[in-house]
Design brief:
about 280 residues, alpha/beta, Rossmann fold, eight-stranded mixed sheet, 10 helices, about 15% strand
């Protein structure tokens, strides 16, 4: 590994650790492309272009997701008093991400980013090297024991106090054979009273744009998971109290200057936040 990523421009391929294949696009880095970030390679920009060509509205979803996460963080820190967040399937902790929003509101907020992509660990730790209230760990969303047993998680999260778990843009990317209800139960079972659980997710509402999205994903070379139904989303919050307005399109969750809320893709991207009583 030679040097560190250039924060002023695209990643230098020579910096990538040997376990990272820079000839294949990464979901985390493609998401960064859609957010007009700099933490990506040419292969990711090519994949993003393919997806946008197949479905021009796809980049909008990245912006919708970022907007709703900002609103959720503000709610949790300012109204709910949460000072600990575990963001599972985080992607790259780039500009304007969860820790920056939360720590602007209260510098004592701790954030643990979790992703199974080695690029997130490699670049995330470099980006967060000087932030002692934030860390990145490489674990899988389906392995709650590994996430909560990781020394970095245990260093920053006090399990005796309320904390929030984010599962943003993750469930629809899991292999179709994965039992999503089991994944969410394993995570929510870790919450104590006053803890919160957040999901943002593509949702199968029967809208034809779902098929268009799948085709766009295939065009970019990514495997397709499976969209949850609205009924399944409700089941993921079993035992939790939904925070109003409940399970709704992300642009309708406490809206505030939403990016193009009437776009067709906005109809299939949902958001919900639940609290453990």
């Amino acid at each position: 590994m030679s040097g560190q990523p250039d924060s002023a421009g695209p990643f230098d391929p020579n910096w990538a650790p040997p376990e990272i294949d820079v000839t294949k696009p990464s979901v985390a880095r493609v998401y960064d492309v859609f957010l007009e970030g700099k933490d990506n390679y040419e292969i990711d920009r090519q994949a993003a272009k393919m997806m946008s060509t197949a479905l021009p509205e796809i980049p909008l979803i990245a912006r919708i997701n970022r907007h709703v996460l900002r609103r959720a963080v503000r709610y949790l820190v300012e109204e709910a008093g949460i000072r600990q967040i575990i963001d599972i399937g985080s992607g790259l902790p780039t500009a304007g991400n969860i820790h920056q929003i939360a720590q602007t509101l209260d510098s004592d907020v701790s954030v643990v980013y979790v992703d199974n992509d080695p690029i997130v660990l490699a670049h995330g730790r470099a980006l967060l090297a000087e932030n002692d209230r934030t860390t990145v760990i490489q674990e899988d969303a389906c392995d709650a024991d590994a996430i909560f047993g990781d020394p970095e998680t245990r260093r920053l999260i006090d399990f005796d106090k309320p904390f929030a778990i984010f599962l943003s843009g993750v469930l629809h990317s899991l292999p179709p054979t994965v039992d999503r209800a089991s994944v969410t139960r394993a995570l929510t079972s870790r919450l104590g009273p006053g803890g919160y659980f957040l999901i943002t997710n593509f949702t199968d509402t029967g809208d034809p744009i779902v098929d268009q999205f799948n085709k766009a994903t295939i065009a970019a070379g990514f495997d397709i998971g499976r969209f949850s139904t609205t009924e399944e989303l409700h089941s993921y919050f079993s035992g939790l109290d939904l925070i109003p307005p409940g399970i709704v399109p992300a642009t309708e969750w406490r809206p505030d200057n939403e990016p193009d809320p009437e776009a067709p893709t906005a109809r299939i991207y949902y958001m919900a936040l639940g609290r453990k009583p």
